[in-house]
TrEMBL record:
The keyword Electron transport does not apply. Pfam families: Methyltransf_23. This is S-adenosyl-L-methionine-dependent methyltransferase. CDD domains: AdoMet_MTases (cd02440). Residues 1-42 are annotated as: Disordered. Residues 1-29 have a biased composition (Basic and acidic residues). SUPFAM superfamilies: S-adenosyl-L-methionine-dependent methyltransferases. Keywords: Methyltransferase, Transferase. GO terms for biological process: methylation. It comes from the Eukaryota. GO terms for molecular function: methyltransferase activity.
Length: 299
């Protein structure tokens, strides 16, 4: 990607601004950079297994034992892979009810178990029910601006009952290290996408602070390195990352925006990225955040 594609001339900048403003208007209904289609279903389900393994197989916050009557919310559930896995891990008559919510029902499973309830809804408009023992949310990095993140955390806080738990996993969306041969292009692609969509791909660096500002206590952060290369190391992870970029490309194309990259240029970009990751030590980081809503009288 050339500099001129990034620092475009005034007309293009003004078009980008209009695009951003249109996106901002739509933001109340949610904005998400990836398409929700069948390849994406497969990618998310495979990713679930690898993220679970990255965190030693744990699905729930350490110290939380779900009990009969507890309600759990999986916000931005996608295919519901996390919620279905939690349901499978509980005894058949556990009495735990799981709400799986997403802005679209496109990836919902056909026949979920009776204690997992799928519904469409926007996290940013979640009702302040104060009923959930646990709210889980994973990988909304490609959906929210900084303002959205603050609103999201306020909504999740209000959905929890006092003493309830928040568990989130988010990714640092930028591939490391910065010394990869095409690192400048990866950064430029992220910046271009941020400019067009208003999404903040660097949010993970601020989430701990925003969680605290939302009123949560006992905030803990567990950062794990997710290898992408070289060679066989991280092969599935890097294929997943590349497929995720493909899902961004399909979403943007469906919206009539090729991000200034022809199909040939895109294919070259993807090939350069695959070559870098396969040949060099490279990684992403996944950040798990655990926190609790204080009970009245807590400091
Ligand atoms: C990267 S996927 C992650 C799905 C799932 N949490 C997982 O880890 O497999 C992000 C999901 O968030 C959903 N989403 C995006 N914006 C949303 C919003 N404002 N409210 C609810 N869901 C949203 C998308 O439709 C998508 O299914």
């Amino acid at each position: 990607m050339s500099d001129s594609q990034l620092h475009s001339h005034p007309e293009a900048q003004s078009e980008e601004k209009v695009g951003r403003e249109e996106k901002e208007e739509k933001r109340g209904e949610g904005t998400y950079a990836l398409v929700s289609d069948e390849p994406e279903r497969a990618r998310l389900d495979s990713q679930h297994e690898r993220v679970k393994a990255l965190f030693d197989g744990s699905l729930l916050p350490a110290g939380l034992q779900l009990q009969s009557g507890d309600r759990v919310l999986d916000a931005g559930t996608g295919t519901g892979n996390w919620a279905l896995d939690v349901a499978r891990s509980l005894p058949p008559s556990s009495g735990v009810s799981i709400d799986s919510m997403d802005i679209t029902d496109r990836l919902f499973p056909a026949s979920p178990p009776p204690n997992v309830h799928f519904s469409t809804g926007n996290i940013l408009a979640l009702p302040p029910s104060g009923t959930y023992t646990l709210v889980h949310q994973r990988f909304l990095t490609a959906a929210f601006s900084a303002a959205d993140w603050r609103a999201c955390l306020a909504r999740l806080y209000d959905a929890l009952k006092p003493g309830g738990w928040l568990r989130m996993e988010e990714m640092r969306a930028f591939i490391q290290p910065a010394t990869l041969p095409h690192a400048g292009e990866f950064l430029a692609f992220g910046a271009l996408l941020e400019g067009v969509t208003g999404i903040n791909f660097r949010a993970v660096d601020n989430i701990e602070q925003w969680v605290r500002e939302a009123g949560f206590a006992d905030v803990q952060v567990d950062v794990r390195r997710w290898p992408l290369g070289p060679g066989e190391e991280g092969k599935e992870n890097r294929e997943g990352v590349m497929q995720g970029w493909g899902a961004v490309r399909r979403a943007m194309s469906a919206a009539g925006n090729d991000l200034g990259m022809s199909d040939a240029r895109w294919a070259q970009f993807m090939s350069d990225a695959a070559g870098d990751l396969e040949a060099h030590e490279s990684w992403l980081t996944v950040h798990a955040f655990t926190a609790r809503k204080p009970v009245a009288g807590d400091a």
